[in-house]
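Mods, move this if it's the wrong board.
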Amino acid sequence: MNIKKENAILEVIEKFSDYSELILHQLTLLEKIINSGSQLIPSDILEEIMSNEEKSDKFEIKLSEKIINTIVLQQPLASDLRKLMACYQMVINLERIGDLVINIVNFIPKIKDQEIYGIMTDVIYNMLIVTQNMVQKSILSFTQGDREYAIWTIKNDPVVDEMNQKLVKKVISKTGLPEETRQILLSFIHTNSIISSIERIADHATNVAEATIYALDGTDIRHQNKEEK
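Not the wrong board. Structure tokens:
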């Protein structure tokens, strides 16, 4: 490989790591909000999250363009081409994770019933921690070339799905309030939107892990049965 091509690919990987850190930091800020148990989001944290979202949007565009330019201008072959294509897929998924963080932050103040939110906060937090770990390991699977991290992430996706179902059942069983109550119904809808967003973050982490495996050995496992992986 010539030096110019090697440097171009290394720069893409370095920028990808920077972008990954930004998205992981957004998840850390979200963790602080959920862990507080309060629907009142501190202004400094909210401002930081919104500022980071603007950075994320610009970062995603520049990094995607850089990946495409590297492929077109440097014409990498075989494993390097797979790595760049996988990186491009990951950037898209990470950007969507960032969008979902914003969705969750916007939903929290809309929950009008503090009792419902209080009942659910502990499970939401646990669910977020599992998902956050999935995102982190899926990124490490790529940056460190670790196939086992990728497999771990993929296999933990059903765990988050199951937590989602248990969370919904917990709310229904513990409220003890009439279903027709508008305020409770609205609160439930908004809270469920938060849960679904976290679940989708886990799905994107799985996509990143699958892209890693493609980058490492050229195997597309997106539609394979998980037991075969």
